[in-house]
Amino acid sequence: MPSSSSSSSSRRRRRKPRGAGGGGPPAAPCRGPVPPPARLRPAWTGMGSAAPSRAAGAEPPPRRRPPPAALGLLAALGLLLRAGDCQLQAHCRIQKCTTDFVSLTSHLNPALDGFDLEFCKALRAYSACTYRNSKVCRGDLVYHSAVLGISDLMGQRNCSKDGPTSSTNPEVTHDPCHYSGHAGARDHQGGEQTAPPTYLFCGLFGDPHLRTFKDHFQTCKVEGAWPLIDNNYLSVQVTNVPVVPGSSATATNKITIIFKSYQDCTDQKVYQAVTDDLPAAFVDGTTSGGDGNTKSLRIVEKVSGKYVEMHARYIGTTVYIRQLGRYLTLAIRMPQELAMAYEESQDLQLCVNGCPSSERIDDSGHLPLPVMGQLLPQSGTTHPRSVYTLETATTKCHEKMLVKDIYFYSCVFDLLTTGDANFTAAAHSALQDVEALHPRKERWHIFPSNGGGGVSKGSKLFVSLGLVCLILVAFL
User: Fold this and answer.
1) CB atoms within 10 A of CB 242
2) Which is nearest to 266 in space by CA: 286, 241, 240, 295?
3) Which of 48, 57, 383, 407 has its CA 20 to 30 A from that of 231?
4) CA distances (Å), 169 to each of 66, 103, 181, 189, 470, in order?
5) Is the CB of residue 246 less than 8 Å from the CB of residue 222?
6) Where are the beta strands (DSSP E) in 339-435?
7) How far apart are CA 398 and CA 17, in angstroms?
């Protein structure tokens, strides 16, 4: 007859939980937290668990068992948590909602017309997607963060909760009179996603200073009428007049822009501005082009008689025109593929190829800064003295522009050349237009390549020759 101790040991072996040894089945895919090591478990974690060693003959400590109701509650909560985890992993699609929203907004640019309208449509589509997943995602922190983020963005952009929504199908949202819209349709039809369109910037201000589509900075004479842009979609012509008698420096007093007719989006529209006449309408008296509630071309007056903007949605182009003092400035942003769509006969474009070498005042971007209020001679003519010295002009320009880039040195050049403080505001506004329209932030500032503050190479050569002459005289 077996002993009682042997029988008790046999019962303990039969009651050993599955999985305590190494031969149990694999764990289920969705499970609760891993149980703590044996040394950290409470004394009541299970019958048959290994007891700590004790001295022979010592009385074993009494085992505390949880009440049956507590065991049932713990088991029920564990099942609910496991079921919720499995359901969340299987059905919550908040990541898909977020991916669709990013896809709908990645090509949008805040500087372009129609941004708020398209962004609000994408936000409403994002909100609808989160609502459809509200039940299965109620325990997901990412989902709740997305809901709060959508609400904040709608408030910032003044988006109404009711209204049109964007579709994730590009064919549905295709708009032939929205440049980014038909660009997206081309991507979809091609069967592969391509990079967003590349935009170019061109600006003209001051005496005048030109920033080309290639980010080359030049100072030119270009007296009279010259084409800035002349392609299949847009023509921009500027007229420059001398600023100071006897000086080769000029400034812009007239701008003519022709928006060429394009499909059913707009008829040809002509805009013209001259000094003291900066209208908020085209020459035919209209303020927009195209049909429908959302105009494909429109003029927005920002400051009466001083600052207007033109937004051409159908070609993705934005134009800023300002009057500062007696002269005009211009800044334009345009897609590269459209800006470069021109015939061989249209190759004379200052924004594309820069000024002809015979019209350049600067030397590869380096300005011939006047010395002691007197311009360095460009010819045999003597120029009038400015009311500014190099020191006072530098101080004046530094009040508006803290970074000593080419816009700062252009300001100094213009003050020394003309003595007109309005050119300080022109340089400052030109830099603001760059920050608003130029697509690449790392290229906003342009610095003289030699870091010398804009002194021309010709000036350096003149000084070098003077030193050589002095040395020869000393030794002869």
Assistant:
1) 13
2) 295
3) 407
4) 58, 11, 12, 11, 77
5) no
6) none
7) 81
Q: How many CB atoms lie within 10 A of CB 474?
A: 7
SS3 call for 318: strand
Q: Which two tokens stand for residue 311?
A: 């937004």
Walk along the chain (476 residues) in steps of 10 and give the mean pLDDT of each run.
47 45 44 42 40 47 48 39 43 85 83 81 90 86 90 90 70 67 46 72 94 93 94 96 83 96 91 96 92 80 95 95 96 95 88 92 70 41 63 92 91 90 94 94 81 41 41 44
Closest alpha carbon to 100 in 131, 133, 122: 122
Whether residue 124 contacts residue 104, with contact meaning beta carbons closer than 8 Å, is answered with: no
In sequence order, what are the residues at sequence separation of 6 or more whose Cβ sits closer than 8 angstroms to the Cβ of residue 160?
120
Tell me, rounded to whole angstroms, the distance of Cα 178 from its chain centroid.
19
C-alpha–C-alpha distance, residues 103 and 351, integer Å: 33
Q: Note the pLDDT of residue 319.
A: 97
Provide the pairing of β-strand 217-219 with 224-230. unpaired
Evaluate whether 119 touches 104 at the Cβ level (below 8 Å). no
The residues, ordered by sequence, that sit 6+ positions from 108 with a Cβ below 8 Å of its Cβ are 115, 118, 119, 122, 180
Q: Would you say the C-alpha torsion 43, 44, 45, 50 has a positive or negative sign?
A: positive
Token pair belonging to 57: 């003959």
Ramachandran bin of 57, using left for φ above 0, alpha for ψ from -120 to 50, beta for the remaining angles: left
> pLDDT at position 449, please?
65
Neighbouring residues of 277: CB distance < 8 A, sequence distance ≥ 6: none
- What is the separation, in whole angstroms, between the first and last Cα of the chain? 135
Cα separation of 9 and 3, whole Å?
10
